[in-house]
Amino acid sequence: MTVVEPRLTLERRLLRDHPIVIACDEVGRGALAGPVAVGAAVMTPAGARRRIPAGLRDSKLVPEPKRADVAARAAAWVSASAVGWASSVEIDEIGIMRALGLATIRALADLRAHGVIPEDAIVLLDGNYDYITPAGAVGLTVKPVIKADRDCASAAAASVIAKVARDTLMTGLHDELPAYNWASNKGYASPDHREAIRTYGISRHHRASWSIVDTPTLF
Prior knowledge:
Strand order of the largest sheet: 3-2-1-4-5
Organism: Microbacterium alkaliflavum
Mean pLDDT: 94
Distance between the termini: 18 Å
CATH superfamily: Ribonuclease H-like superfamily/Ribonuclease H
Helix content: 25-40%
InterPro entries: RNase_HII (IPR022898), RNase_HII/HIII (IPR001352), RNase_HII/HIII_dom (IPR024567), RNaseH-like_sf (IPR012337), RNaseH_sf (IPR036397)
Catalytic activity: Endonucleolytic cleavage to 5'-phosphomonoester
Structural class: alpha/beta
Subcellular location: Cytoplasm
GO molecular function, one term: RNA-DNA hybrid ribonuclease activity
């Protein structure tokens, strides 16, 4: 299989009309347990002239042993980055799509606290649907792009930064509840995870509103 290397072609085009690009990508949408995370990475005209870090890809294409290193170099490469979260309780209360929007708004708020003005940016969102605006965001320009995490280097950076953050959190939760083997499956619907749910039931970190036991594997 040919691996597509992300580029900055779209970002450079968008930066002709906007002072900054904020690329966003989610991690954990299909998991049965744990929060959803949204990474946000800021690209400026100066940053778009810098060399893309070696090995930067959509997080799903980066081998797990290399992800932390790639994420660290991605975070150093972009002008700023943040990760926003929505908990399993919030997912149960408001649904996964609104939770994704809420997590994105929190990531953008973190960027704002570090001097980034999201309203000045165009928000490059991986996927085909703007889930940010319906969650209550005001004054943002959002551009959904299918496969942005594969094709756009800033979105790949957001993806791998969020992936490493969420995997680290799930590994920590594994120490609290090792029966579910979250250090390995990260809360997704692996066979061992579903078997543990059948044996022990769900924990406070599971998405209780989901039909968990019979959910197909969603890696």
